[in-house]
């Protein structure tokens, strides 16, 4: 009875949010863009936008990675360390193989394979051995960071020029990162239509129900981690292009940012509900907040404080908007 | 078409034996009723056949050949589909996605075939046209549906498997009469097609209207199996309860108690799903709410309990205004509420029995410190009085059968006696023996002076136990039945006529 009542009471905004769960995030994004524009009109220029995207493309990728495990109710605290491991591996390989175009592509492919392997390990540990996702991936994060440190003990080895000039360069007058964004958008549109995505969400919704429906729950969860590993590797390739060097600790800080981006994007951390688009927007929100903190001229010792507060505010706004729509 | 034989199936969870000797012989073209009190092992037997529970011993023969069913996927491959009593739905997915979740149609190997998905689900949904109710559609997420509609989705999900063997574990508990009738039409058609079906229900009338054969399970063992035509309700009940005394609750109407001073007065109550509801419950009276399922009975009870908002009208307890805005407030005013939806409103799943019996005590006494020993003594009395079966008060409440879980939920209200007891279809999914215990208790509570409002989706229960019956239709009380008027005919008549 009460359900029937909410059905009739829900307004147009509620319906929209049910259809597009990332809508509150989109509103926040527009708001932040406007604020950025007010404090620094030049921040809305094409150049600055390109800069913003090339800096935060890595976090966007990592948020996508995180989304696929969150879909099935899991979490990956090693996502950032996979970024580090792939980053240093790619850098070292490119250096070893000479740094020409072919070696760059070969190194990128190996990097992607390393990401896949890391994801597979996580999946087997969490879903196969049934260890708690938070603790198990925390442990593998230390393990992956350890590997990264043996591959490249100190930060600094530069990427070959061919690599970062491509990442920061233009084709036919359009910056490379926009092609990357377009490619990812197409890829995500394809992934969204996959049966696997529906199955992941069903597993995250109610694991027992999914099992009783005859879904291969363990395999589905492992696939989620493999997706996560792959997108973490893509994030590493982006960050390698942005920083143009190897750093065995580069991804560590990104892990929880990626979780925050997923939540900001309207996905349920408990699983079963969410969109990848939302996570992309979430990552951009974090990027814009960082930019805004800089543009309003926050003294450096206050930057963390303001940044944290701003993320909290964004989270609250998102919740208030969706709650207001539901009432 | 398939013939299924289960012999000597056994399943134990630690020391608790859920099923000691489960036998079942299911033939093509029959509806095979499985009956037994809650916790007798029916669901376990079904889950063994469906592959979601692994048996410790016993064999399963399909068309004479022994098979191992080591998971729900294996069961599906063998042609076995199941309706799970506790439902197996993904709440945030749509109706269509849920119906075909076990076998999502694909194109290109990996993509969901939306066209095929829509076409196939539209065909299945069309079977329940006109009875599915408002707001039911293929693209609605399941969390937006009512309990009866969710149950329909689970039925559709089982039907969509097209399996030659279908198991329905209490598929009708939340459905209204029209929905049940439609479901039975479908079952009869499937029977004609030669499919074999297991059907579990606690409603005798349903069992005798649809069943061909009945197998009785008692205390984890199959005790009898006979053709429906060669048995009757009394015999089945005797087989179910064994040597225990014949059950009384269903047969003789109560001696109408002289209602005392008004305990609960409700005037012109309005809210979502009901309007203009007025009544009083006297001291020692059991007031029944009747009518088809979901006509506002539950909502009125929940509104009085403060669990649902009401926007107009007055509620008085002992002549004192009491418009509770939260259950906590209602409880402090002496109102108790027991719902048939134990998962949502009753049990604290996974927590010990003790913690499930004592929360109301803590709330009413505003205590903050717990002394487990003293609490256990306090909890013991009500649990014993209700004949609750458990081994240890520290065992999780969900390790008990449905009937015993409900007794634990009721026990929590008996430590500090409320003045008013609201019963919202309290016997849903509870076996006959536990029902009988429950109604004896309710009658004695009324005799002690409690005012009781009882909504039951089973008319027989209502007729046997309520002193007065208010019949609900589309959210309004259309008729009040008293004394000699409390007949099945009058109840049906008032429930079915257009409001």
What does this structure look like?
The complex is a heterodimer of chains A (327) and B (499). Helices cover 76% and strands 1% of the residues of chain A. Chain A is mainly α. Chain A has one domain: ABC transporter involved in vitamin B12 uptake, BtuC (Orthogonal Bundle). Chain A has a two-stranded antiparallel ribbon with strand order 1-2. In chain A, strand 1 and strand 2 form a beta hairpin. The radius of gyration of chain A is 20 Å and the shape is globular. With 499 residues, chain B is an alpha/beta fold. The longest helix of chain B is centred in the middle third of the chain and has 16 residues, at 177-192. The radius of gyration of chain B is 23 Å and the shape is globular. Chain B has a six-stranded mixed β-sheet, sandwiched between helices. Chain B has 18 helices and 22 strands. Chain B has two domains: 4-241, Rossmann fold (3-Layer(aba) Sandwich); 262-496, Rossmann fold, CATH 3.40.50.300. The interface between A and B is large, with 32 and 41 residues.
Count of discrete structural domains of chain A: 1
Q: How many H/I helical runs of chain A? A: 15
Could you please say which CATH topology of chain A applies here?
ABC transporter involved in vitamin B12 uptake, BtuC
Question: What's the total helix number of chain B?
Answer: 18
The global form of chain B is globular
Q: Approximately how much helix is present in the residues of chain B?
A: 25-40%
Q: Please identify the structural class of chain A as seen in this structure.
A: mainly alpha
Question: How do you describe this structure in short?
Answer:
The complex is a heterodimer of chains A (327) and B (499). With 327 residues, chain A is an all-alpha fold.
